[in-house]
Structure formats: structure tokens, C-alpha cells
């Protein structure tokens, strides 16, 4: 059995008569020790999907379907059961570390919280392990920095602190929700390497949410591409460039800037993202898709097209190859760095 | 060449150490010199109220008919009143009641305000609506009238006055706490706390309240003098502490009766009262500087 099993998950938000259909039926699994990348544009429902695992969605969220984590039926578990999971079995890293740390308390005291909340250690032991963890995530002179306040750290350092906090209780799963979006490229590379190393060393599973295909390809084993609250394609990171099938993913890869070509106008996907205030009728990509047919008025299911490769597209299911992948395989290697 | 001394990181105290943080707080507070003076004045007041037994040169209640209406002198620094009682002793003793009611009612106010405000803010929904409507109703009461009714009902004891003063003053505090809690509750670090497995109680005590304290503390420095005012006002209408126990309000109203012949009977208690209220305002300003992080360090 896999560590995370999400089946047919639907999430909508009801706020003052305004309904937002954020997630429209998603299947996602994470095996032990696996890194799953979830890629999609803003509003595609990626953050909402992963936040449902520790059940931290706002009160206005209505969930359907099944979310199992480590054998626990998350959507029906008791509040106490969920609290026992958070911070202990699931660690989370967020986009903006400064906002996610309490400004009135030292980073050391916050770092120890998962251990103290779950009574995994006494104060002295927690402090010792906190210092050890700070050292591991690359904070120099941890003993001196332990009693610093968040505003005394740089963004990259704070992200390291947040990683240390998420990992201190050695969780089975760490959810990284766009952890490098607010960092510059150099620091981003350091943080990615750190996350990957820690994930390997601690033998954790990881869900890595990002809108950056290149980053997802670097870090993940498997990539889920989301659009309009659905998964449009799931494939191995290694197959991303050569074997992708969905028109949306093709468009995304096309619009990556490249270093090995003269600078021109970047290709883009015409149209606007899905209006999430309407329930999905048909393929979410319909309006922007250059190859849609009449079939596309009904929502396509994820169909297996290869080993651990599934696509939700009627054209692909009907054996049509959307774009010629060999044409750009060579060129793309310039924009996606080597795997870590 | 010798390396500059600042290259040795260990030699410097870490910038976030508790000691330095405390000094930063103090530096911001003392930026306004009046705040420091006000704080010193309040400390002096509280000390003299506590040590009234040791400090006062004469018993505050003992009449001395051989020394009535004496102007300030070396024997009686602030003069004597119609019964020959030493004004200095009476003023110091009257501080006691002012402090008991001022601080005591504030403690009640803070407790009730924190309890109701954080409950309403944290739980929200129907609980919030009900609690805040209760607050609105109490807020709509003419608070002084309410205090008068309470004192009349319970009696002229210090406890009754304390209850009467705090009975209506908590509403403002509850509103401030609620608005703060609602604001802080939406912060990302609260989500992070929940993510780390904090219970509602732990979230409240370790995350929400410490971050809500700024405006609450400032409100406290304005609440204490307001309570003292209410207490004095009750004395003025004859519903305060029972004479002969001295009380600032009562001293002022008696002094006002003979202001043309014996102005010092009015001036000293009134001056002391005014300075007390002013000191609290200054301290409040200083605290606002401490918590106002927007105007730079």
C-alpha cells in the first residue's frame, strides 16, 4: 500500500454564495521514498490538493472522494487523529518562510515545536536535536543563531530553518509547497539540493509543488501535471521531454525560454485559465486546445499510455500523437538542468 | 596586517539575544522622554501607595483641632484640612484606593476581555456573533449610570466600587482583543503552527496572544487612568469610598468647596490626580512606539 492515496478527490469552496470548484476529481499516489512533483499554473488546484493531506484547508472547503495517508482515512479522521499526524508524520514547507514563522519568538523555539507538541522529546533533548538539525540544513554557528528572531535571517536562511522545522520529527512525508518560488536562482539551487539530500538521507517521501517544470524535473521521480483542478498527465520525470502527450504540457514545454536559440518572441498558450467558478463541463483545456474535437465536451479520464504514464486527453486515447516530440528533444536539454 | 576586530563573529553578542532585544525595547520606549518620566512617576505613586503606612507623617484619619486649615509648612507639607488632618497623609492614603480600583478593575477588564475577545475571535461564527452582540448591548449602556446603580445595590465598599467600575469597562478590551485575534489568526504562522500539530490552546497561548499584545497593552495604559477617573467620579457624586477614608475624588470636591479661602486644599489633590492620568498617557505613547514597527527601529 502506498503512503498517500488520493482517489477521486473533489474540493470546492463555498463562500457567501460564491462557489469555487478548485479540484475536480484527482487521483494521486505517493509510494514510500518517492518524490512526486505536482506542476501547474496558479489556480490549477495543486496547493489545495496537497493541503488536503494534513487536512489544513479552510473551513469553507467541501471535500469529496478519498484521501488516505499512512492507512488513515484523512477526510473522516477525528481532529485528534489529524493533530497527531501533523508535524510528526507530515512536514510542510511553504513558499514565503518569513510569513510562516512567528515574529515574536526565536527560530530555535519554533524549530523545536513539532517535538514538543507531540511529546517526542523533553526541552533539553529537543534543543539538542534542534541544533543538530540547524547544522544539517547548513546554518553556520547554530548555537549562536538558535536564539535569533526570524527578521534577523535572510530569505534563504529562513527557508533552511523552515525545512529543519518540517524535518525535525523525521516525518514519513514532507510536502513542499513552492519552497523556492520566493528565492533567487542561486539560493533556489542550494535549497533544492538540500531538500533532495535530506529526503534521501531520511528516506522520506516528498510531494513537491511548483509551477516550474524545470525544477519539478530536477527533483521528482514522477510528475503530475495539473490543469483546471484535474490531472492532465502523469509521467516519469525522465520521460518529461521525450514522451509527453498532453497538448497543455506540450504548450508549456514549448514556452520555456531556451539558451541555444536566437532570442525571439516566446511561444505561449493562447487563452485564459479555466473559470473555476463554474463546474467543469468537459476537458478543462478545451478552450485553449488547438486540437480539440467533439469528444472533448466530456471530461476525459486518465488513461494509461505506457509504463507509469497516464494522460487525460481524448486525442491521445485515440492514439493521436499531438506534437512530434523528437523535434525539440535536443533543444530542450538546454533549459532543464541535470537531475540532482 | 592585523585583521579588523569585527571579523571574529564569536566576540560579538548575537544580534537577537534576549538581552539585546530587551535593550531594543527600552531604547524605543525611552525615545519619548516623557514616557520615562511618566513611568517613573507611576512607579513612585504605586510605591507610596503600597508603603503608605511607613511614609505618612500623620495618621490620615486623626483630627487635630489645634491645627485646622493650616497652609503648607514644614510640619504639614501640604497643609491641613477643616478637621486638622494632614493633607499629605490623606493624599497618600487616597492613592491606595485609586490604585486598587485603577489596577484591580483593569485586571478584571483584561481577564474578561481576553477571555471573551479571544473566544469570539478564535471560534468565530455564531459564538462570535452572540458574544459581540452582548458586548454591543453593554457598550450601549451609559456606563457611569450603570456603575452608580451597582454601587447603590451592592453598597459603598471598595469591592463594590471595583465591581461597578469593571462591570462596563471590559467591553472595549474585548473588542480590541477580538479584532487583534482575528487579524493574527489569518497569519501564515498560525497555519504553520497548526501544521506542526499545535492544539487550539497551544496556538492561542504561544502564537495568537503574544502577537496580539501590542494594542492590548496600550489599551491597558489608557484603561487604568479611566478606571481611576470613574472611581473619583463616584466619590464626587457621594457614592465612592465612605468618608472618612480619604479618596482623591472626595478630596478634590471638598477642596473645591473652599477654593477661595484655602486653595491648597484643591490644588494638591487635583494636581496629583492630573499628573497621574497624564503619566499613564505618556507611558501609553511610549508603548505605542515599542509596538509600532512600521515607523522603523
Describe the structure.
By secondary structure, chain A is of the alpha/beta class. Chain A contains 13 helices and 12 strands. Chain A has helices spanning 46-51, 79-85, 107-111, 113-117, 123-136, 142-145, 155-167, 185-201, 213-219, 240-243, 247-254, 314-317, 326-332, and strands at 4-15, 18-30, 35-39, 61-69, 72-73, 90-93, 173-177, 205-210, 222-227, 230-236, 303-306, 309-311. In chain A, the strands form 2 sheets. In chain A, strands 6-7-8-3-9-10-12-11 form an 8-stranded mixed sheet. A 4-stranded antiparallel sheet of chain A has the order 2-1-4-5. In chain A, α5 packs across α7 and α7 (155-167) runs parallel beside α8. Chain B is mainly α. Chain B has one domain (29-291): MetI-like fold (Orthogonal Bundle). Chain B contains 11 helices and no strands. Chain B has helices at residues 18-29, 33-50, 52-55, 87-123, 125-140, 143-154, 158-185, 188-195, 200-236, 248-257, 264-291. Chain B starts with 17 loop residues before the first helix and ends in a 6-residue tail after the last helix. The model of chain B is unreliable at 3-13 (pLDDT under 50). The chains are: A alpha/beta (340), B mainly alpha (297).
Blueprint of the fold:
The complex is a heterodimer of chains A (340) and B (297).
Chain A: E1 4-15, E2 18-30, E3 35-39, H1 46-51, E4 61-69, E5 72-73, H2 79-85, E6 90-93, H3 107-111, H4 113-117, H5 123-136, H6 142-145, H7 155-167, E7 173-177, H8 185-201, E8 205-210, H9 213-219, E9 222-227, E10 230-236, H10 240-243, H11 247-254, E11 303-306, E12 309-311, H12 314-317, H13 326-332
Parallel strand pairs in A: 3-8, 3-9, 6-7, 7-8
Antiparallel strand pairs in A: 1-2, 1-4, 4-5, 9-10, 10-12, 11-12
Helix pairs in contact in A: 5-7, 7-8
Chain B: H1 18-29, H2 33-50, H3 52-55, H4 87-123, H5 125-140, H6 143-154, H7 158-185, H8 188-195, H9 200-236, H10 248-257, H11 264-291
Amino acid at each position: 500500500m502506498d503512503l498517500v492515496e488520493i482517489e477521486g478527490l473533489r474540493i470546492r469552496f463555498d463562500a457567501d454564495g460564491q462557489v469555487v470548484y478548485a479540484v475536480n476529481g484527482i487521483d494521486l499516489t505517493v509510494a514510500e521514498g518517492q518524490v512526486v512533483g505536482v506542476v501547474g499554473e496558479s489556480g490549477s488546484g495543486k496547493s489545495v490538493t496537497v493541503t488536503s493531506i494534513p487536512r489544513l484547508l479552510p473551513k469553507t472547503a467541501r471535500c469529496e472522494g478519498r484521501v488516505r495517508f499512512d492507512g488513515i482515512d484523512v477526510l473522516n479522521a477525528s481532529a485528534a487523529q489529524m493533530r497527531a499526524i501533523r508535524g510528526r508524520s507530515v512536514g510542510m514547507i511553504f513558499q514565503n518562510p518569513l510569513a510562516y514563522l512567528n515574529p515574536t519568538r526565536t527560530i530555535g523555539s519554533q524549530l523545536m515545536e513539532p517535538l514538543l507538541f507531540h511529546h517526542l522529546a523533553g526541552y533539553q533533548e529537543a534543543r539538542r536535536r534542534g541544533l543538530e538539525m540547524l547544522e544539517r540544513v547548513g546554518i553556520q554557528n547554530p548555537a549562536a543563531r538558535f536564539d535569533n528572531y526570524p527578521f534577523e535571517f535572510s530569505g534563504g536562511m529562513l527557508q533552511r530553518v523552515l525545512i529543519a522545522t518540517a524535518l525535525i520529527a523525521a516525518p514519513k512525508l514532507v510536502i513542499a509547497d513552492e519552497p523556492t518560488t520566493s528565492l533567487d536562482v542561486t539560493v533556489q539551487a542550494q535549497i533544492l539540493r538540500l531538500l533532495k539530500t535530506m529526503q534521501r538521507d531520511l528516506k522520506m517521501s516528498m510531494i513537491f509543488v511548483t509551477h516550474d517544470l524545470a525544477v519539478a524535473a530536477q527533483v521528482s521521480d514522477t510528475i503530475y501535471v495539473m490543469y483546471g483542478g484535474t490531472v492532465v498527465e502523469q509521467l516519469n520525470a525522465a520521460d518529461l521531454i521525450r514522451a509527453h502527450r498532453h497538448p497543455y504540457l506540450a504548450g508549456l514545454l514549448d514556452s520555456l525560454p531556451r539558451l541555444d536559440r536566437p532570442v525571439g518572441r516566446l511561444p505561449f498558450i493562447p487563452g485564459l485559465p479555466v473559470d473555476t467558478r463554474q463546474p467543469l463541463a468537459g476537458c478543462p483545456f478545451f478552450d485553449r486546445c488547438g486540437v480539440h474535437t467533439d469528444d472533448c465536451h466530456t471530461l476525459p479520464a486518465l488513461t494509461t499510455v505506457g509504463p507509469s504514464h497516464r494522460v487525460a486527453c481524448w486525442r491521445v486515447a485515440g492514439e493521436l500523437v499531438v506534437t512530434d516530440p523528437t523535434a525539440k528533444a535536443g533543444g530542450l536539454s538546454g533549459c532543464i538542468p541535470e537531475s540532482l | 596586517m592585523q585583521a579588523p576586530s569585527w571579523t571574529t563573529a564569536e566576540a560579538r553578542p548575537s544580534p537577537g539575544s534576549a538581552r539585546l532585544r530587551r535593550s531594543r525595547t527600552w531604547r524605543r520606549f525611552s525615545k519619548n522622554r516623557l514616557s520615562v518620566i511618566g513611568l517613573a512617576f507611576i512607579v513612585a505613586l504605586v510605591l507610596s501607595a503600597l508603603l503608605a503606612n511607613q511614609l505618612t507623617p500623620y495618621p490620615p484619619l486623626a483630627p487635630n483641632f489645634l491645627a485646622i486649615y493650616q497652609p503648607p509648612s514644614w510640619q504639614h507639607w501640604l497643609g491641613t484640612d477643616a478637621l486638622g488632618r494632614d493633607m499629605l497623609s490623606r493624599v497618600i492614603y487616597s492613592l491606595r484606593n485609586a490604585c486598587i480600583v485603577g489596577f484591580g478593575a483593569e485586571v478584571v477588564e483584561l481577564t474578561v476581555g481576553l477571555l471573551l475577545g479571544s473566544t469570539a475571535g478564535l471560534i468565530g461564527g455564531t459564538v462570535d456573533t452572540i458574544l459581540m452582540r452582548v458586548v454591543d448591548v453593554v457598550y450601549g449602556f451609559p456606563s457611569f449610570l450603570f456603575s452608580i446603580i451597582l454601587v447603590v445595590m451592592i453598597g459603598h465598599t471598595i469591592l463594590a466600587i471595583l465591581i461597578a467600575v469593571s462591570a462596563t469597562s471590559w467591553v472595549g478590551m474585548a473588542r480590541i482583543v477580538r479584532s487583534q485575534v482575528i487579524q493574527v489568526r489569518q497569519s501564515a504562522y498560525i497555519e504553520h503552527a497548526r501544521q506542526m500539530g499545535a492544539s487550539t490552546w497551544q496556538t492561542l497561548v504561544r502564537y495568537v496572544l503574544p502577537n496580539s499584545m501590542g494594542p492590548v497593552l496600550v489599551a491597558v495604559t489608557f484603561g487604568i487612568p479611566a478606571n481611576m477617573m470613574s472611581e473619583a467620579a463616584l466619590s464626587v457624586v457621594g457614592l465612592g469610598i465612605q468618608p472618612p477614608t480619604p479618596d482623591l475624588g472626595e478630596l478634590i470636591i471638598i477642596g473645591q468647596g473652599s477654593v477661595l479661602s484655602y486653595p491648597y486644599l484643591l490644588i494638591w489633590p487635583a494636581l496629583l490626580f492630573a499628573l497621574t492620568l497624564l503619566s499613564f498617557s505618556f507611558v501609553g505613547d511610549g508603548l505605542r512606539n515599542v509596538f509600532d514597527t512600521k515607523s522603523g527601529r
